[in-house]
Amino acid sequence: MPTLLNINGFKFFFYANEHEPKHIHIMKNDEFAKVELDNLKVVQNYLKPKDLKFALVIIEQNKIEFKRIWDAWFS
Prior knowledge:
Blueprint: E1 3-7, E2 10-13, E3 23-28, E4 31-36, E5 42-45, H1 49-74
């Protein structure tokens, strides 16, 4: 399970056997969400609204790097 970033109690990662479309899993404590990288579409969400908002900002700021790591992992 490659971890992309740990920040402010949030863990951004993907699983080693993922599938398209490119997406990121986010965990904070026992809550989680799943967000597609290309369009920031929230596919699954169990985070508090303010936590999801924060996570989306972090993904947007790191989207290019997250995609680069995804591509390198699965190539």
